[in-house]
Specification:
- The chain is of the alpha/beta class and 371 residues long.
- It has 2 domains: 20-43 and 279-370, Alpha-Beta Complex (Aspartate Aminotransferase, domain 1), CATH 3.90.1150.10; 51-277, 3-Layer(aba) Sandwich (Aspartate Aminotransferase, domain 2).
- 41% of the residues lie in helices and 14% in strands.
- The chain is built from 17 helices and 13 strands.
- The strands form 3 sheets. It has a 7-stranded mixed sheet, sandwiched between helices. Strands 9-10-13-12 form a 4-stranded antiparallel sheet.
- A hairpin with a 6-residue loop joins β9 (305-306) and β10 (313-317).
- α5 (73-83) packs parallel to α14 (265-275).
- The N and C termini lie far apart (45 Å).
Length: 371
């Protein structure tokens, strides 16, 4: 079938680098002959799902024979009430990634460019490439944060979407309010500025650090779109739900490319309850900040650097190629994420974990780094 693949699959699909998911912990333990592995690779909430979300799910199970509300009306109303937005300013998705892909499909002509930076979340590039749209990656600052001037210099008449994570995955860096204003001032008239705020609730635990509020920008400028998710701080990654906030004229087109019934009934019910679980959100943010402070203070080694982060993970520059470090950690039962796919061959990403696991994670990383 190789000849068929080469002859009949579109070139932009043939050349895609498919996302490589990590193996389940249980499978890795079986393969390696170990037990008690700790997964700190996927930026999940170690405190678990919102308790309020868990409480409402059992009653919803009896309705699984029914299709979900395709418009997500109850959740839609809950989000706009919580965030103070207009009813037409919310679109639901199967996670925020789903909405990013919809944005590319709905707004970009074949020659339109999606612009971000070289250390941005891989899905920004993949969303463009899956649709066959050009992706432009601007250089970063020396500490791997978004270089606002370099980003602006990458704008062309073909720029249609500018996508920025704040906090950014995998670096944990943020866009300042002044930086965001500068990007908006330089944004081509035909373009949208998309803020991926998957980790924004974690950034709230660092009030002393200036970072952009995408929703405030949206209220001031119709060209802003904000993506948020229930997968991270709310702990609902397994049922996939997120939303976009934006101008009604922009969000109306998303429904033209989205799939029907793409947000499950369980996800909608859980998300409504999770929105009201302020205690879980606050505890999760405090937990992440405390662990990031310990990661930065205690992970050490020759030429090792732990970058600042306002999310629930840190990027560790190991000072040497990271694949052997990743393999050594794996054999010791600590699963991290190697960063070669991001163009960072010397780095690993380490998520926060349970307090009972923290000492082992730090000790194991330090032992491997010192070897």
């Amino acid at each position: 079938m190789t000849d068929w693949f080469d002859a009949h699959i579109p070139r932009h699909v043939r050349t895609l680098d498919a996302y490589q998911p990590g193996k389940p912990v249980e499978e890795l333990e079986r393969e390696l002959g170990i037990t008690g592995a700790i997964k700190v690779a996927s930026n999940e909430n170690p405190l678990g799902p919102s308790p309020k979300a868990l409480a409402v799910l059992p009653a919803a199970l009896a309705q699984l024979h029914l299709y979900p509300d395709a418009g997500g009306f109850a959740l839609w109303r809950a989000i706009v009430a919580k965030l103070g937005l207009g009813l037409g300013q919310i679109a639901l998705g199967n996670g925020s990634n789903d909405l990013l892909y919809q944005l590319v499909l709905a707004t970009c002509e074949p020659t339109d460019e999606v612009v971000s930076h070289s250390c941005a979340f891989l899905s920004y590039r993949l969303a463009a490439q899956v649709a066959g749209r050009p992706f432009i990656a601007a250089p970063t600052t020396p500490d791997l944060a978004c270089d606002i001037d370099a980003l602006i210099a990458a704008f062309t008449p073909q720029t249609k979407l500018v996508v920025l994570g704040s906090p950014n995955n995998p670096t944990g860096s943020v866009i300042t309010q002044a930086g965001a204003a500068k990007v908006l001032a330089a944004l081509p008239a035909r373009a949208l500025l998309v803020f991926d705020e998957a980790y924004t609730e974690y950034a709230a635990a660092w009030p002393e650090i200036d970072h952009v509020d995408g929703l405030a920008l949206l209220r001031a400028d119709r060209r802003v779109v904000v993506l948020r998710t229930f997968s991270k701080i709310y702990g609902l990654a397994g049922i996939r739900i997120g939303f976009a906030a934006g101008d009604q004229a922009v969000l109306d087109v998303l429904g033209r490319v989205g799939r029907t019934f793409h947000v499950s009934s369980l996800a909608q019910v859980a998300a409504i309850a999770a929105l009201e679980d302020g205690a879980h959100v606050a505890a999760s943010a405090r937990h992440a900040r405390a662990q990031i402070e310990r990661f930065r203070a205690e992970i050490k080694g020759p030429s090792v650097r732990v970058l600042p982060s306002l999310a629930n993970f840190v990027l560790v520059d190991c000072g040497r190629p990271s694949p052997p470090i990743y393999d050594a950690l794996l054999k010791r039962g600590v699963i991290v994420r190697p960063m070669a796919a991001w163009g960072l061959p010397n780095a690993i990403r380490v998520s926060v974990c349970k307090d009972s696991e923290l000492a082992r994670v730090i000790t194991t990383i330090n032992e491997v780094l010192a070897a």
